[in-house]
């Protein structure tokens, strides 16, 4: 199952090394060597949650996982996420969630992301607003604990030693980030205007910067940072903020909503540029996932997909998304339990899985475009992301 990804990766890699060779020859330096990342540490929200929220608050229900895992696998998708394809391409196993105490194997990294996570702490509980208590600052403390305790466990030997990363992996690992979307939607869901949401971005990014500085302080050196996607194209936002859904572009996406995502990304790019100056021992790759996802949604047919604004798994309405009856939800009708949020049955041709998240097919499509560096600054493939500009 991994071979098509690995094959395409090798192709991308060789295309890239050709270019790198040329530019490095002209610069008078040697070609870039692959980084051979021994581990991945991931931070984020549901876009990269491989089981964190499921471990803490109850498992994502079927039909999540139906396409690839054949059963729910802690992911809000029918199959793999972009982070899974990244792991495959680096010949690393899928990441265990830090919060998962069952059969977790952290020898090649750990995942601190949980669905509903924000960069800033929310002042509401998961039960009130749906946002995770594991905000990015909490994830960075968990990483601190993880590093400290895993090394103590290794030094003590015994059965858990082989499930922990080696000490040198922390400086050699790839640190991946995909977070921010929920900070912006939480503003809209608490009835802020677009101007009010925009005004929160500097504070969101200052918290993001602190988290990166903390990971750098713990030895992180290679950072792969996804910008935020076009959340104005997602059914759950269009459905919950009808006033914004009234102003859409040709693709049917909320123009003000996506405008906020684009402003966030512009400022995130500036933050990453400052981090490069402030933390000179680290390599930072900023990845424009927004453009890739927007192209997939706005030109879905051209790319072999259909109904990009309609959830595959859901329950009715214009977008097949119902806030109260999500993917996999059940109800008792006339004494019989029935599933309300069913899969459309053909997620391979669909972009949106459940109104909030992308299908495996969409995630693979996005990974295939970002893996080679065509949407990155600097334009390095993921396997080369240890090299500083
Ligand atoms: C943990 O993962 C590593 C790397 O994939 C593997 O070599 C090892 O056998 C795994 N350990 C257990 C106990 O599953
Ligand atoms: C939570 O409340 C604190 C104190 O009032 C405030 O500074 C912070 O911005 C609030 N966070 C969010 C996400 O609104
Ligand atoms: C882990 O934490 C303990 C106690 O807080 C501290 O003494 C120790 O130096 C830390 N170890 C590492 C590897 O950070
Ligand atoms: C937002 O406004 C709607 C409509 O006025 C209201 O029903 C809802 O309670 C408000 N939400 C918040 C979080 O204030
Ligand atoms: C439930 O049962 C009633 C009475 O038999 C029937 O009229 C109704 O259509 C049923 N509802 C559904 C959703 O099947």
Automatic annotation (TrEMBL):
Any one Gene Ontology molecular-function term assigned to this protein's record: hydrolase activity, acting on ester bonds
The organism's place on the tree of life at top rank: Eukaryota
Pfam families, per the entry: Lipase_GDSL
Keyword flag Cytoplasm: no
Signal peptide start-end: 1-27
Keywords of this entry: Glycoprotein, Hydrolase, Signal
Keyword match Glycoprotein: yes
PANTHER family per UniProt: ALPHA-L-FUCOSIDASE 3 (PTHR22835:SF588), ZINC FINGER FYVE DOMAIN CONTAINING PROTEIN (PTHR22835)
Family: Belongs to the 'GDSL' lipolytic enzyme family.
Protein name: GDSL esterase/lipase-like
Lineage summary: Eukaryota, Viridiplantae, Streptophyta, Embryophyta, Tracheophyta
